[in-house]
Design a protein that fits this description.
The chain folds into two domains: about 70 residues, Glutaredoxin (3-Layer(aba) Sandwich), CATH 3.40.30.10; about 110 residues, Glutathione S-transferase Yfyf (Class Pi), Chain A, domain 2, CATH 1.20.1050. The chain contains nine helices and four strands. Strands 2-1-3-4 form a four-stranded mixed sheet, with helices on one face. α4 packs antiparallel against α5. The chain is globular. The N and C termini lie far apart (about 35 Å).
């Protein structure tokens, strides 16, 4: 069985948990305590030398990168419902997965650090960093908003792993104070994501870990 090493409170770990539930993928979860620094210990570094969560193993395969784990699990599931094999559909989904990891996540992460992580650590947010990032975040959000004006989900009329991946960096959007009001299609889509059973199932673990309500 696929082994997944994660802490459900983190963006990319929640992504994998919600994605696996969407896919109907069974796995054995190994908890790696992020706040205790367990992802930097030798036993975890032997699985993922990057020292980043999550990671997965399947026999002799050790896999890092949350989107790669989702792609592998989707193919392993035997169904192409959430990760179609049709070439153009898959290319479109892959485009969003790559964009999320390289562009969207770093922008959303600044809001996460300043408005969620720092308060948890009893530190004050740096409003200058938010002000500096806001134009870029709004530019990126406008790209999503324009895409979501054309269809219910990112890759068409059906939810895919692209939706889970792109939603993950904004999974605490209320606490991150992401300015969604200026992007109505993005806001509508995020509300649709939050109605997904796979998303709702992972919310409790996040709330517990971060002390949110």
């Amino acid at each position: 069985m696929l082994q997944v090493y994660l802490d459900p409170c983190t963006v990319n770990c929640r992504k994998v948990l919600a994605g696996f539930d969407l896919l109907g993928m069974n796995c054995e979860v190994q908890h790696v305590d992020y706040f205790a620094g367990a992802h930097k210990r030798p036993e975890f570094l032997a699985i993922n030398p990057n020292g980043a969560l999550p990671a997965a193993t399947d026999g002799d395969l050790a896999l890092s990168e949350s989107n790669a784990i989702l792609q592998y699990a989707a193919d392993l599931s035997g169904s192409d419902r959430y990760y179609p094999k049709e070439l153009k559909q898959r290319a479109d989904i892959n485009r969003w997965l790559l964009w999320e990891a390289s562009t969207w996540f770093p922008s959303c992460y600044i809001y996460l650090v300043e408005y969620v992580v720092k308060p948890l650590m009893k530190a004050e947010p740096d409003e200058a960093k938010i002000a500096q990032e806001a134009p870029n975040w709004n530019r990126l959000a406008s790209i999503l908003d324009a895409r979501l004006a054309k269809s219910k989900w990112l890759a068409g009329d059906h939810v895919t792993i692209a939706d889970i991946a792109v939603a993950a960096p904004m999974h605490l959007h209320k606490w991150q104070r992401l300015p969604l009001s200026g992007h109505p299609n993005l806001k509508r889509w995020m509300m649709d994501v939050e109605k997904l059973p796979c998303w709702q199932k992972t919310q409790a673990a996040v709330d517990r870990a971060l002390g949110l309500n």
